[in-house]
Amino acid sequence: MHQHASGAGRFAPSPSGDLHLGNLRTALLAWLFARSTGRRFLIRVEDLDRVRPGAEQRQLDDLAALGLDWDGPVVRQSDRLPRYDAAVASLVDAGLTYECFCTRREIQQAVSAPHGPDGHYPGTCRNLTAGQREDKRAQGRTPAIRLRAEKPEYTVEDMLHGSYTDAIDDVVLRRGDGIPAYNLAVVVDDAAQGIDQVVRGDDLLSSAPRQAYLASLLGLPVPHYAHVPLALNAEGKRLAKRDGAVTLADQRARGRTPEEVRAMMAVSLGMAGADDRPTTAELLATFDPNALPSTPWVFPTA
Ligand SMILES: [Zn+2]
User: Fold this and answer.
1) InterPro entries per the record (predicted)?
2) Does residue 241 have an active-site annotation?
C-alpha cells in the first residue's frame, strides 16, 4: 500500500437533493481509492448553485450510514468566494480572459449553427472592441468572464481511462450573476485543499482536460484522476429519482438496511458475493482499482 501522507481524495456533492445510490456508490469508490492509498478523505459541499434546504445534512447522514468517514470539517464553497474571485482576477490580470455578454439563448442559437463545434461556445465575444463592450453594458447586460483558451485541447491521465484528450473551450470562469463557475471553483478548491486524487463519475471525464488546463494556468498541480462508471437505469439512462427506490431512504422504506445497500454496491463492484455483508474495513482490505468493472452499473429498479 502506498502512503501519501500529504495527499487527499474527496467527494464533492451538490446539495440539490438526496444522493441516489449511483452517487453513493461513487462516494464509496472515492473513499476506497483515498483510504487504500493512505490519503485523507475530504467532503466538499458544492453549494454555489441549486441548494435544497436540508439536503446537505441528509447527504452527510447517508455517507455515514454507509460507513464512510472523512477528515476535518466539511467545506462549503459558499464560504470560499474570495478565493474564486482572486483566481479569476489573476487570470484577468494575465490577459487570459474576456467578457462575454451572450445570453444563454444566444449561445444556444449560435451553437446550433451548422459549423459550430458541438456544444462549444462559438467565440462571439472573443474580440469585442472596447466600444462594443460599452454598448452592451449600456443595454444593461452584465458580462460573464470567459477563459481565453490558448490551446484547442488538453490531455489528462486517468487511472481507469488512460490518456484522455478533449477540447478545452472558452469556459466560463464567473457567470454574469457574479457566481464563480463550476470548473473554476473545483480547480481552486482541489488545490487549496491539497486534493491530489479526484475520483468521480465518468460523466465528468470530458471536464477533466479543461480543469487540468485551468490548473496549469493558475500554477496549480493537476490531480490524479479516476473517472468511475455511473449507475444507469434499465433503459441505459443515467439513474434518476423517477427510477424507483434510488435513495437510501427509499431503500430503508423497503426494509433494506444501509449494510445491505453497501453489500449490493460491493456486489456491483465485483467485490462481494450475493450473500456477503462486507464492512467498509473488509472492502478496503480487498480493494483493487485494477479489478473494477469498466461498464456501468445497471441499477436493479424492480
Ligand atoms: Zn459572448
Assistant:
1) aa-tRNA-synth_I_CS, Glu-Q_tRNA(Asp)_Synthase, Glu/Gln-tRNA-synth, Glu/Gln-tRNA-synth_Ib_cat-dom, GluQ/Sye, Rossmann-like_a/b/a_fold
2) yes
